[in-house]
Amino acid sequence: MSEIAIHPELEYRPSVFTQAEIGWTPWLAPLVEEELTDRHWAGLVDPSRAKSAYFMLLVRDPEILEARTKTDKDIFYNTTAGLPRADRELSATAASRVNGCIFCASVHSRFASHYSKRTSDVQRLLDEGTDADLGSRRWNAIVDASVALTATPSAFNEEEIARLRSEGLNDLEIADAIHGAAFFNWANRLMLSLGEPTPAAEA
Question: Mean pLDDT over all residues of the chain?
Answer without folding.
Answer: 94
